[in-house]
Structure formats: structure tokens, C-alpha cells
Design a protein that fits this description.
The complex is a heterodimer of chains A (114) and B (813). Chain A has 114 residues and is mostly helical. Chain A contains 3 helices and no strands. The A-B interface holds A 25, 28-32, 37, 106-107, 109-114 and B 771-781, 783-784, 787.
Amino acid sequence: MNLLTQPVGPMHYLLVGAVLFVCGVICMTAKRNALGVLMGIELVLNGATLNFVAFGSRFLRGDSASSLGLDGQLMALFVIVLAAAEAAVALAIALNFYHTHATIDVDDASELKG
Amino acid sequence: MTLDRLLPLLLGLAWLLPLASFAAIVFFGPRMGKGGKGAGYVATAAIGLAMVLSLVALGGWLLGNPVTLIEPTAGPAEEHAEGPAEGHAEGLAAGKVVEIVRPIAGNWYTLAEFGSLRLTIGYYIDALTVVMFAMVTLVAFCIHVYSFGYMHEELDEVTDPMVTADDGGPLRRPGRFHRFFQYLSLFCFSMLGLVVAGNLAMVFVFWELVGICSYFLIGFYHERSTATNAANKAFIVNRVGDFGMLVGLMALWGALGTLAFGNVREAPGRVSRGVFRLVRSAENDYRLTVPDRMVRQAARAEVEKIYRTAPTRRDAEEQIAGKIPEWRDEGYGYWLLVIAGLGIFCGCVGKSAQFPLHVWLPDAMEGPTPVSALIHAATMVAAGVYLVGRFYPVFTPEVLLVIAVVGCVTLFIAATIALVATDIKRVLAYSTVSQLGYMMFALGLGGWRAGLFHLVNHAFFKALLFLGSGSVIHATGTNEMPRMGGLLKKMPWTAYTMLAGCLAISGAGVPLVIGLSGYYSKDAILAQALSAWRAGSSPVYAVLCVVAMGAAALTAFYMFRLWYLTFLGRPRDHHVFEHAHESPKVMVAPLVVLAVFSVISGWPVLLTNLSLTNVLDQARPKGTEAGSAGGVLIPWLTAPAEHLAEDHAIHVPASLLAFALALAGFLVATAFYGVRRIDPDRVRRACAPVYRFLRNKWWFDELYGAVFVRPAMRISGWIAAVDREGIDRFVDGLAGLCRRVSVLDDWIDRTFVDRTVDRIAQGVHAAGLWLRTFQTGRLRSYVLLVAVGTVGGFIIVSVYWQFVLAGHGRMGP
């Protein structure tokens, strides 16, 4: 089954979401810069959001009769709002971290290691 | 306030005052003044106040219940036409008798109630109680005052020459003045409680309290081994008697379900019957009958038989009720009554030092002399006679015979031993035993009044004699009469008061006119004995009478022997004589008071019916005034009515005979020791075996030693050996086995259980160390782990689905 020859369906969306997700994870693991890690988190969240949007779309769903079909979109909105809130908190942490360690290298944040 | 309410209040207070003093001295005694002198004041004040209250009570009693004389009623003795008491009905009865006054009985306090069992602090007050209270408190007060003088050495540190201390010298110890008075107070409290007690349970409690107090006081010089031995002896011998008493109590309690003496009004209209009215009920003319419950108890087998055959319970009860008179006539339950009486008397034998339990009393002389006076006059030994008098209505004729015989044997044995004793206090101790024998003897022959009259008189003159001997001992420092002599000039007060005591106990007086107290009571006892001899058909009564008469002569002899040896003649030990001096006033004053009472306590008050005998007669147990004749088990028994002994045909010969015998005793004593016409040593040599026999107190101590003490020791030795060799070994073996098992157990514990637990702990520890390596602290590796873990989880789940769930699906229908 060749995706390139198929009409656009859920599978394409999922593929793009997965790519975004994996990119985010790689970014989170590879970056030592805290801001880089935060960006990776954003990518992961966006990848997940894309899945919600895809599954919530009217065009991609089989049964459109019984509901308005907005649950996926609502979840996506939630994720976006939460991501914004989380980014604010995370940036505050990063800022504080910088104050104390004079760096934002996450590898230096190892005080709690076992 | 009526007498019914007033007397319990007065006597109750008089009873509790010594207890208060005891409690105060127990807690604050050593701090009361120098050397505890204040304790003496507290105790004396308490007993003095008790004396005042008792005298007020006596006055109240006499005002409320004046002595009234009535014609003697025909009693059961006369009604038994076939009885040996036939002769009584011929109008021998002389004069009138005193009207009996109803006793005041009640409860102060109910201690506990279990079903039908009631334990109460009750009272039973009649003329006897009131007179006893007055006598006990009066004598005890004199003894308290006297003790101030006698015990003054105890105020400072005491040197006891009779005890060797560890360093070889005489023992020095702190004085125990306050402790002496503490025990005196407790003693008085116990005795008064015993006298006022309204039921046998209470009597028993105070009975034991009196016993323990005498134990404390006899062993007062507890550093001396003789004193502790004497205290133990007194206590243990009394236990023997108390065992019998318990048997009697149980017989009564088991059969009657009550121990109260008199009828007690518990609520208006509800009266619970006491033992006296159960045994001698008003419906039955106060005649001694076996109570229904006792009959039923004894005829248990028949009762069960009826229950088995009767159709209903009510039927059975009716049948039993109908049968009870029949059973009673067959003698069911009579034995129970006899056993109850004998049991109670057994307790009295122990406490009043009667044969065969008389051995403790002479040894009790180890206590300080005031204690001897207290024990021998007012309290301990009086308790036994008092209880016999109190419990008199319940004694069957058979029990009375036993009492008379025991009393007679006692009075004779003790009198003979007193003849040769040389310790001044021991002479008095045996004299006490002998006089107590007289009291029991009189009670046993129906002389209720005579016995108790003698009890009161004896309390006065014996307290006097003991305190006098204490005064002598205090002055000379020795108990041995052979070392005294000629003390009349040195201590005239003591000598003359003691002479009054000797005259009183010997029964001196002008026959048929007037005499000292002992003259009246001893006459009454001997007249009663003579009366019993005349009335009884058995020679037993003749023997009893003759022995008692003979012992009267012995009494006069040993008492005057004591007086002559102590006060007359040449001084035999000059050191002692030089040392002697008259005792201080505080010791002489009680002697004078007691001497006065010894002289006058028998006198009637002129122009009135008032006299000690008549007052005592008011308390005579109802139903006994006419005497008794013929027992159920032994037909020839008799206890003639006491007023018959006042008849001239009996009274005059008895009185003259008693006087003649006492005079004979006195003259012989004078011949021996007064004017020295006969040399005592020659007589002693002439009758050496008899002398040795008496000197060794009839070998009673040796006999008991051989029959009871040594076998008991040997048996206890065996038991100890069994204990050591058998039981101890067994227990030791068990312990050894136990120890070995525990060693094994310890090994198992260490090897298996502990090691398992250790291994688990080690594993957990190692796992923790390994897991620790994942906590790198690097954020990125965490993320990686999360990602890898998630992917790994996915893979596992999908493989699971692949192989398990899918396979399951295939295996489905």
C-alpha cells in the first residue's frame, strides 16, 4: 500500500503526527539547552494534537450523524492551552535555574540523582 | 430518745473510740510528744471516754429497766413429769426471780447482701452487754493508767538484759511506748466489738482480732525468743479452738441461714429471726427445740425421697411440713445442734484457756504485766466465757455437760499446778485458768448468773492481782517468789491491795452475812453445783461438786502462799530487797480503785433490788430460767433452775462448806509460809513424785510435744524431703529440659529463619543499588528512558495481543 497514491486519509495525518512526535522526542533527548528541550516538548505536543484534530475531522470520520464531531478539536484546544501554561511554568523554571546555576544546560541539573 | 436508740449510740461510740485512738497512734504515734508519750494520753483518754459512755449506758439501762422481781414460772423442767427434776415441783423454789428484759437487737450497717446471706455490723444489747462494757472499760482504763508507770522505761532507749545483742552485750533498742498503747487500744476495740456484736460472724471477726492483739502484746518484747514462742503458742493453740468454732458456725449457718443472735426488725412489720428465737421460739414456750430448717437439713435423704414420689412441688412441700414434727421426735437435726454447740464451745475452750487447750495462757506471761492483766481479766479469756454465756440458749443439755466437765477438769488441774509454781505471774496465770474453769463449770451446770457474776468479779480482782504483781516485779526486777519476801514494809500499798485481791479470790467473808465479791460468786457457783448434785440422779454431778469444792480450798492455799512468800517472812535475797521500793502513785491509784471494786462488786444496794446478780439476771436467756432436765442423747442430764440454789437447804450448807474449805486452805498456807510451823521443803521431799508431777504442769507441754508437735515436725520433715527430693528434682529436670529445647530452638532460629530473612533483605538491597544507577539525574536520559520504555511497552503489549488474545480468539467457537 503506497500512501502517496492514496487519497488523504487518517493514515497520512497519523504519519505526520508520528514524525513530529519522534522529532520532538529526539529534540528532547539530544538538546542540552533547556530551551531546546522545551521546543522538543512543543513538538511532541503538536504531534499529539495533530492526531486529535485528524480524528476529530468530519471528513475523516465514518459516523457523523449522531454528534457534532467537535470532541477532537476541543481536546486539541485543551492541549494548546495547557501547552501555553506549561511553557510559562517551564520558562520560569528555566529562568530560576539560570539564576542558580548560571547556565541552562539540563545536564547540570543533576542534584536529585540517585 | 428511747433506750432502744440511745444505748446503741452510746455503746457504739464507746466501742469505736479505742479504734480512733488506735488509728491516730498508728499514723502519728512516734511524733506524739517525747518518746511517744502523747500516745499514752490519747489511748487513755479514748478508753476513759469509753468508760464514761459505758457507765452512762449502764445508768440509762438501770433507769429504763429497773429490776423487778416476779414469781418464778413453771418451766419445762417441771413439765417433764418423768424427768429426774421431779423434786423441783414440790415448792422448793425459794423467793422470786428477776424479770427478764427484752434485749435490744439491730443493725448499724449492712456490709453486704448476697441473696439470703446478710453480713451486718449489728448489736445485741442486754444487761450482760452493758455490764460487760462497764467492766471492760473500767478495768482497761485502770490498766491504761497503770501502764504509764509500768512502761515508762519504754519512753527512752531500752536496754534489755534478757537479750544478747550481736556485740555480746545486752540489747539496746528504741523504746516502744506508743506501740504498746496502740495495741492496747486495738485490744479494747476488739473486745468491746466482741461484746456488742449482734451476730456470730461479727463475733468471729472480733474473736480473731482479740487473738491477734494478744499475739502482738505477748510478743511485745519480740527480741526475746521466749516471748515470740509464747506468742506463737497462744496464737496456734487458739487456732485449734477456732477450727471448732468455724465448724459450729458452719453448722448453724448451713442449717439456719442466719448468724444473728436476736430478732432484728428490718422494716416495719418485717422481723428476721435470730438464732436464739429459732432455737427457742416464743410459740414453743421458749423451749429448746430443733428448728425446722435444721430438721430438714438433717433429714435430707427423706426429703429427697418425698420429692421423688410426690406429684408436684407443692405436694412435696406440704408432705415435708407435715413430717417435720415426726422427724424431730425421731431426733433428726439434734446432732447438728449438739455439734453447733460443741463447736462454739470449742472456740471458747481455746480462748478461755480451758483444758485441754489451757497450755498457752501461762506462757502468755512473757508479755508486759499490764497486758497480762488485760488478757487475764477484761478481754481475751473473758471473751470465751462471755460467748458461752451469750450463746447459752443454743446449748443442748449434752453440750452443757461437756462444758461442766471441761470446766471442772480445768479448775482442778490449774489449781494443783498453781500450788507449786514459783513465778509470781505464773501462779496468777494458773489461778486465772482455774477461775475460768469455775465459770465454765457454773455455766455448764445451769448457773448462768453465777458464772457470769464470777466473770465480772474475777475481772476486778484478777486485774488487781496482776497489776499488784506487776508492781512487785517493777520494784524487785524479778518474777521469782523465792527471791522476794518481806516486802510488806517496803511496799505497803501494793501489799494491802493485793491482800484484798487474795481475800476476794479466796471467797472471804462472814458466811451468810457479807463478804468480798468472790465470796458471793464462788458461793453461787458451789451452791449451783450442790443443787445439781441434789437434782441429778447421776454420780457424775457428785464428783463434779466435790472436785469444785476441793479446788476452792486449793485456791485459798495458793493465793495466800503467793502473798506470804512475797510480802512476809525474812527477805531471802538482800540485793532484791534493798532495790525494792513502793511504786509511783500512777501505779498505786489503779490498784486502789480495783481493790475497792474487788471488795464491793458483789454487794447489793441496800433497800433496793439492785445488785450485780440481779442486773445480770435481766439478761438471762429466755427459756433457761427454769433449768433443763434430760437430754435427748443422755437421759440423766440436769441443769437445775438457778433460783433453786438460793434455797436455804442448798445455799446454807454450800456457803458454810465453801467458807470452811477456804479457811482450811488459808490456815494450811499460813502454817506453811506464814508462821512456818511446817517446813515446805520437808513436805516437798516427802511427796517428791507428786511435786515433780505438778512442777512439770502435769507434763502437758511434754505430752503435747510428743503427741502433736514432734509428729508434726517429723511429718513436715518428711514432706520437706519429698519436696526437696521429688518435686524439686522434677522441677529442676523440667527446667533443664526446657533450657536444652530452647538452645535447639535458638539454633533453628539463627540458621533457618534468620538467614531467610537476611537473604530477602540482601536481595532487596541489591535491587535498590541496581535501580539507583538509572537515577542519573540527567534529564535527557530520563526522557530517553520514558520513550524507550513506552515503545518497549507497546511492543510487549502488541506481542501479547498477537500470541495470547489472538490465539484465544482462534480457540473460540
